[in-house]
Amino acid sequence: MRIKVKSLTVALVSMSVVLAAGELLAQSTAGNQAPAVSAAATATELGQSAAPIAGPLQPGAVAPSNHPTGASVSAANASPSEGLPQQSGRAHTASSIDPNAAFTHFRVGQRNVKRILADQDLLWVGTSGGVIKYNLKTDDYRLYDIRNGLLANGIFHLSKLHGNIVAGTYGGGFGILDAATDQWKIYNIPQGLGDAFVYDLVEADNGDIWVATWSGANRVRGGNLDDRSYWDLFTVANTQGGLPNDWVYALVKGRQGDVWFATEGGLAHFKDGLWTNWQHEDGLGAPYELVRDQIQFKNDPAQYSKHHARQKTEMGLQNVDVAYNPNYIVALLMDSDGVIWAGTWGGGLARFDGATWTNYTTADGLPGNHVFALHQGPKGKLWIGTSDGLARRDAEGFKVFTTADGLFSNTVFSMATTQDGSSWIGSFGGVARVTHLD
Question: Which of 109, 240, 363, 424 is such that its CA lies 20 to 30 A from the CA of 391?
Fold first, then answer.
């Protein structure tokens, strides 16, 4: 490994987030029969309104000046044109779902499901229209959004901290839901957060809390969230390029008090006050020549944004006219063997054992080269959510699952495994509960 001090300001393009909520419906298919794409839902709505639910940003939830403007932000916080959906209810009638069904679909309207958290008998679903708490036993749900404490409805992160749910939002910092009072406590820029856009949060072994934001990585020493003097912010500038890019998209806690950072400019590692990073030139992400004919997204953001055009130049990607940035890590995971897996934006899946990089693309059996989600199930299998299906890493390669196997959509943003072994897979428009994958 080598320490780098060069500064990179890297940003290409991420999936545009279209935020409008519709219905949340459940439908099921028994046995192993494949889903009918046009099949009508057989269950009642969760949130009985077709209106968008993403309301305006609340006070304190203003996007910083370095953020993009226009559709990507305004769509995330569009004012509803009419009534909002119900905040609690039941997902479907008791007789409408076969408990032995091979899959069940839960629709969330025109929303992305970016995070899913399995929490014993509860399933927490982070959408671009708020957080849904779904009771697996009773079928009851509760929707948390700007009407009951959040500052923004777009959810990028869900986790548990000291028994409480944490939700990272798109423009409203992060909130901690007190389990006793059912009230959110918000942490945003005034509290010390580097940016109101929060993508991840982890607690290190020493009690430090790390927060991934658009404008660097926060460390809260000792987890003292309520004392701003304990908040630090690490950026490209103050780490002399040790953090290769200020957009930190994911975090992983290491095994020796260390932390790994997925950024738009590469992978970074922090231990004992020292930064190390790796980029495409070190082996991260497949070469453009290998994947250019497999890239699904043909719209070049540099044609529409001076910001992206400048950053493509800084990355040496001037001749790339599709959605490809091998340094942009969208998903990050450390497996049970301590191996780092990085999902890249068009450069496939990267494996790093601390010394050697290995990249996997559609040429190796991966369904898509844009990797949005990584999950290790209770049986130790690695799951990869891509732009064109879900893959399971097996000894012989990749086993691919699509809508033909019960997925709601082939664009997979999130995944969780519940206590009964069911796989819950989030995409644009819905969640699939699938019982026969692993």
Answer: 109
**CA dist 197 to 31, 37, 120, 306, Å?**
42, 35, 28, 22
Q: What's the CA gap between 365 and 360, in Å, rounded?
A: 8
Tell me the three state secondary structure of residue 200.
strand
Instruction: Say what the pLDDT of residue 102 is.
Output: 86
Map residue 59 onto helix, strand or coil.
coil
Q: Which residue has the higher pLDDT, 401 or 5?
A: 401
What does the longest C-alpha to C-alpha distance in the chain come to? Answer: 61
Residue 188's closest CA among 148, 159, 222, 215?
215
Distance (Å, whole) CA 146 – CA 59? 11
Q: How would you classify residue 406: left for phi > 0, otherwise alpha for psi between -120 and 50, otherwise beta?
A: left
Is the dihedral angle over the CA atoms 179, 185, 191, 194 positive or is it negative? positive
148 vs 66, more confident = 148
Sheet holding 340-345, edge to edge: 325-334, 340-345, 349-352, 357-360
Written as one letter, the residue type at 257 is G
Please give the mean pLDDT across all residues of the chain.
Answer: 81
Smallest CA-to-CA distance from 384 within 363, 370, 395, 396 is with: 370
C-alpha 310/C-alpha 313 separation (Å) is: 5
Return the structure tokens found at 50. Answer: 């077709």
Report the DSSP beta bridge partners of residue 134. Answer: 123, 141
What is the gyration radius of the CA atoms in the chain, in angstroms? Answer: 21
Beta bridge partners of residue 221, listed in sequence order: none
pLDDT value, residue 88:
77
Which pLDDT tens digit goes with each residue over 354-400? 999 999 999 999 999 999 999 999 989 999 999 999 999 998 899 99
Write down the pLDDT at residue 305: 63
At 221 the three-state DSSP class reads: helix
Look at phi and psi of residue 42 and say left if phi exceeds 0, alpha if psi is from -120 to 50, else beta.
alpha
